[in-house]
Structure to design on (135 residues):
């Protein structure tokens, strides 16, 4: 098992909970206030530089590696679709007429997972810009 595999096993339940929370509270484009707060608070907790209110509700995080180098950007959408969810799952949408049928709850969670891993393992060259895009 690699270091990354072990790390993912250790944090799997936490990221599953984050995805389900985002799924249960979908927000339309440029209305992602709750989601943006969850993202910004998580990034700050992990020691990531955070800029909020980018393009209204977007969030950008910056992680600098231990060595100088190039910069890369990783992006995830945060918005949902204007659909009624009828799955009856325990984490179904609590917002009528809104649903993460698009997978953006997963995209946001995957980028948060990458952010936490990189923040905890900065032995890389360069800078990673994490772009959590509204709308």
């Amino acid at each position: 098992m690699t270091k990354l595999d072990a790390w993912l096993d250790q944090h799997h339940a936490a990221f599953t909970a984050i995805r389900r929370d985002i799924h249960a509270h979908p927000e339309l484009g440029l209305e992602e206030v709750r989601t943006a707060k969850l993202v910004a608070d998580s990034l700050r907790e992990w020691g990531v530089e955070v800029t909020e209110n980018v393009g209204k509700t977007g969030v950008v995080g910056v992680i600098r590696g231990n060595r100088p180098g190039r910069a890369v950007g990783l992006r995830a959408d945060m918005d949902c679709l204007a659909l009624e969810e009828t799955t009856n799952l325990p984490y179904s949408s609590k917002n009528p007429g809104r649903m993460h049928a698009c997978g953006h709850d997963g995209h946001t969670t995957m980028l948060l997972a990458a952010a936490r891993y990189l923040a905890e393992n900065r032995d890389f060259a360069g800078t990673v810009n994490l772009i959590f895009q509204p709308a």
About this structure: The radius of gyration is 15 Å. The chain is about 40% helix and 25% strand. The longest helix spans residues 3-24.
